[in-house]
Amino acid sequence: MTVIMKTHLLVYLVFGNYICFAKDCPDMWTVDGNSCYLFGHQKLSFFSAESYCNQHKAYLVHINDATEDSFIREHLRDMKGLSWWIGLTDDDIENTWKLYGTNEIADFTNWAPGQPNDYGSNEDCAVFEMTPGYGEKWNDAPCSTLLLPICERPFDVSGSSIIG
Fold first, then answer.
1. Contact between 139 and 102 (Cβ < 8 Å)
2. Residues 6+ apart with CB under 8 A from 149
């Protein structure tokens, strides 16, 4: 095997998996782990934001662990918006936070101190707050508030051509 062929094989083995995953995300989406993320540019209510995500074959982001939370936080630091919808609500049962569109109670949360507080008995939807004073953590807000959506869609790696 020539040196050039060995180099190409090494590059493919090292970077091929990432390249394969990245190409499975549509343009303007960001890849991390096994999901693609779209950070919207239009303020919408929570339910309109979910509909917007559904139109893109996605859903409002389900933040499942500290790693995903950290990825979202780091990405939002470079964005213009301060408050972003995430797919979490206690609309059915107060203070029982479920991943929207499922019946799953959230295993992971990262609420700002004193949150969620259901201020005015009207805050049933979760927000990733980049607003100063919230420590880049989550807040609850009225679902009718107009905020930016974060959409997530997993991609299928089963069709990958990676060998080994």
1. no
2. 38, 39, 40, 44, 49, 50, 52, 53, 60, 84, 85
User: Is 20 inside a domain boundary?
Assistant: no
Q: Is residue 85 part of a domain?
A: yes
Pairing type for strands 125-129 and 30-32 reads: unpaired
Residue-wise pLDDT for 21-80, tens only, equals: 445 788 899 999 999 999 999 999 999 999 999 999 999 999 999 999 999 999 999 998
- Range(s) of the domain holding residue 64: 27-154
84/149 Cα distance (integer angstroms): 6
Please give the single-letter amino acid code of residue 68. Answer: E
| Strand-pair partners of 128 | 84, 138
CATH number at residue 68: 3.10.100.10
How many structural domains does the chain have?
1
Q: End-to-end CA distance of the chain: give it in Å, rounded.
A: 19
Task: Please tell me the distance from the alpha carbon of residue 29 to that of residue 20, in angstroms, as a whole number.
Answer: 15
Residue (of 124, 118, 138, 127) closest to 92 by Cα position: 124
Above 50 in pLDDT, residue 114? yes
